[in-house]
Amino acid sequence: MTSLFSIHINKERAEKEGPFKSTIAHGYLLLSLIPYLWKQIAVVRNVKMEINYGIENLKFGQAVPVETDVKLQATVKSVTDLRGTIKVVVEAKLLIKNHTKPTYTGDVIFLYHFL
What are the helix (H) ranges across 1-115? Predict the structure, then answer.
């Protein structure tokens, strides 16, 4: 059995054989940044509990080379009261510094329970 080539961790092989000529950040690692980056953009007060409920219409647009600066561009699409739980849908785009094409886009859904 041959060893698998990893564009995420094998720097030498990624530079030599990979399509990006560099190791790249794992897509799911980049998705895990959404709650952290969202809190840098929006302040929601008096929250008892916040639930990362899901992501819809997710599309990856381009790879992110390791050690690249990224930022989250977010737009609130809707806010719905579900009998005391607030559902917020946010259009999220992760952008690489000095690039216009998003790394990914998707609608992130948060549920908020307030004090």
Answer: 11-17, 27-31, 34-41
Q: Report yes or no: 104 and 59 within 8 Å, Cβ to Cβ.
A: yes
Apex CA 52: angle with CA 41 and CA 106, to 5°?
70
Amino acid letter, 69: D
CA–CA distance, 79 with 88 (Å, rounded to integer): 5
- pLDDT confidence tier of residue 70, bands split at 50, 70 and 90: very high
Residue (of 113, 112, 114, 115) closest to 35 by Cα position: 112
Cβ 14 vs Cβ 64: under 8 Å: no
pLDDT 10s digits, 17-31: 888 889 999 999 999
pTM of the full predicted structure? 0.86
Edge to edge, the sheet with strand 70-82 lists: 47-60, 104-114, 85-96, 70-82
